[in-house]
């Protein structure tokens, strides 16, 4: 019974943090996350990790992860993958690139199987199906 009492304040504190009652993001953190998202947009085709960003700003990866989620509304990895898939779609559509392997590596995915998995999760279709839909659309025009 005493053990439960010791942990009760921690649980209440965590629940309050999750509900947003006591968690406010400072302007400095907002600026840092803006800089990180800008770095992603400029370097999405390179290896970018949460560890690298945390080291750059001299904070722990766990703390950066929490701040990023609070500001961006999604995890660092999800933001990075969404941006990479957006760029891949642009390469497929506007530049007419047909090689899924080339596109996946040019947007920062080293493993084409992982690219397929991420693309399908985000777009609800495989890159191959996306290419086919573009081809069908171009024939109709």
Annotation keywords:
75% helix, Arc Repressor Mutant, subunit A, 141 residues, disordered N terminus
Description:
It is a single chain. The chain is mainly α and 141 residues long. The protein has a domain at 84-140: Homeodomain-like (Arc Repressor Mutant, subunit A), CATH 1.10.10.60. It has 8 helices and no strands. It has helices at 2-19, 27-43, 50-57, 61-72, 76-93, 100-106, 112-123, 127-140. Helix 3 (50-57) crosses helix 4 (61-72). The longest helix is centred in the first third of the chain and has 18 residues, at 2-19. It is elongated. The N and C termini lie far apart (72 Å). Residues 1-16 have low confidence and may be disordered.
Strand-helix topology:
Blueprint: H1 2-19, H2 27-43, H3 50-57, H4 61-72, H5 76-93, H6 100-106, H7 112-123, H8 127-140
Helix pairs in contact: 3-4
Question: How would the global form be characterised?
Answer: elongated
Give me the CATH architecture of one domain, please: Orthogonal Bundle
Q: So what's the CATH class of one domain?
A: Mainly Alpha
**Total count of helical runs of at least 4 residues:** 8
Let me know the number of strands. Answer: 0
Helix content: over 70%
Order of helices and strands: HHHHHHHH
Please give the largest β-sheet.
none
Indicate the radius of gyration in whole angstroms.
20 Å
| CATH-assigned homologous superfamily of one domain | Homeodomain-like
Taken as a percent bin, the fraction of beta residues is under 5%
Distance between the termini: 72 Å
CATH topology of one domain: Arc Repressor Mutant, subunit A
